[in-house]
Amino acid sequence: MKRMYLRCLSILLLTMLAITSYAQQKITGTVKDSSGPFPGASVSVKGTSRATQTDANGNFTITAQLNETLVFTAVGYKRTEVPINNQSSLNITLIEDANALNDVVVTALGVKRDAKALG
User: Fold this and answer.
1) Residues 6+ apart with CB under 8 A from 114
2) According to the CATH classification, is domain 24-117 in 3.30.420.40?
3) How far apart are CA 95 and CA 111, in angstroms?
């Protein structure tokens, strides 16, 4: 009986070790642009539905595995992908993308018109 108990206990311990090796950890960090902290930037884990946004001070917290990649996006800024690589804290600086914004006017019911065409 004691031998059976030890076998069950050892199997349970090996299972717990395997589970913890695939465990997720909390990744924290700050997103900035050229003028300082950037509130409202989207932070997501590439290939999953896990996502969050930065707070008013540009800080974020998200859970991810060590081999995953974080994607940082914001309107008017280039998309930035950063591999986690065994880091628990990241500081990201977004780069402006001048080509991302165009002069488009959206009228009622989602109809797009040039600014010249409107009276």
Assistant:
1) 105
2) no
3) 31
What does the alpha-carbon distance between residue 110 and residue 98 come to, in Å, rounded to a whole number? 24
Q: Residue 105 pLDDT more than 70? A: no
Q: How far apart are CA 40 and CA 56, in angstroms?
A: 7
The predicted model gives 63-74 an average pLDDT of 90
Asked whether the beta carbons of 57 and 37 are under 8 A apart, the reply is: yes
CB atoms within 10 A of CB 21: 8
Listed by start position, the domains of the chain span 24-117
Judged against a pLDDT cut of 60, whether residue 26 lies above it is answered with yes
pTM for the predicted model, two decimal places: 0.67
List, for residues 29-67, the tens digit of each pLDDT value.
999 998 899 999 999 999 999 999 999 999 999 999 888
Question: Distance between CA atoms of 16 and 22, rounded to whole angstroms?
Answer: 10
Determine phi and psi for 58, rounding to 5 degrees.
Answer: 80, 10
